[in-house]
């Protein structure tokens, strides 16, 4: 069975946590254009994000740093506490070295600047589709 067939049968499940509805809508449009990717949920605050991620078990989480009710770093630490969890893409308007270091140490897989790297997301998902983690998708 080819990788393409596996991925088409088992899309990468994506969850977006960002307080900006404009950013979430733009991401949804961008990801809808990609084959093998399925949006499973969205959240605009920390509590909603943590709960939904635990319930939905996405493969990839796109996470903002600053959100109501805490920080995206709090969400990151929660979902990566056992060392496993989804692939996490931090997408932020605060691309400072200190944030980058803290996020990567807490388990973020990627750290992107919204203002200069937003358009890299489709390419990133194409790379993720080739990753061995997604070769052996589990049946529903």
Report the CATH C-level class.
Alpha Beta
Order of helices and strands: HEHEHEEEHEHEHH
The number of helical elements comes to: 7
Low-confidence spans: 1-8, 136-140
Strand content: 15-25%
- Mean residue pLDDT: 88
Helix content: 40-55%
* CATH fold category name: Rossmann fold
Strand order of the largest sheet: 2-1-3-6-7
Structural class: alpha/beta
Largest sheet: 5 strands, parallel
Q: Any idea what the shape is?
A: globular
In CATH, the architecture is 3-Layer(aba) Sandwich
Strand runs, count: 7
| CATH homolog superfamily | Response regulator
Number of domains: 1
- Please state the CA-atom Rg, rounded to the nearest Å: 14 Å
Q: Distance between termini? A: 17 Å
Any overview of this molecule?
The protein is of the alpha/beta class and 140 residues long. It has one domain: Response regulator (Rossmann fold, 3-Layer(aba) Sandwich), CATH 3.40.50.2300. The chain contains seven helices and seven strands. A five-stranded parallel β-sheet has the order 2-1-3-6-7, sandwiched between helices. A two-stranded antiparallel ribbon has the order 4-5. α3 runs parallel beside α4. The radius of gyration is 14 Å and the shape is globular. The relative contact order is 0.18. The N terminus and C terminus are likely disordered.
């Amino acid at each position: 069975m080819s990788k393409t067939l596996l991925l088409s049968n088992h899309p990468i499940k994506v969850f977006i946590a960002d307080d900006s509805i404009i950013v979430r809508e733009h991401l949804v449009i961008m990801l809808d254009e990609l084959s093998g990717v399925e949006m499973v949920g969205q959240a605009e605050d920390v509590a909603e994000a943590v709960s939904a991620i635990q319930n939905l078990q996405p493969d990839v989480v796109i996470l903002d740093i600053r959100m109501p009710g805490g920080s995206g770093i709090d969400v990151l630490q929660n979902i990566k506490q056992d060392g496993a969890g989804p692939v996490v893409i931090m997408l932020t308007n605060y691309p400072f070295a200190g944030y980058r270091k803290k996020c990567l140490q807490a388990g973020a897989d990627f750290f992107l600047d919204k203002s200069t790297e937003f358009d890299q997301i489709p390419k990133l998902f194409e790379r993720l589709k080739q990753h061995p983690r997604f070769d052996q998708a589990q049946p529903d």
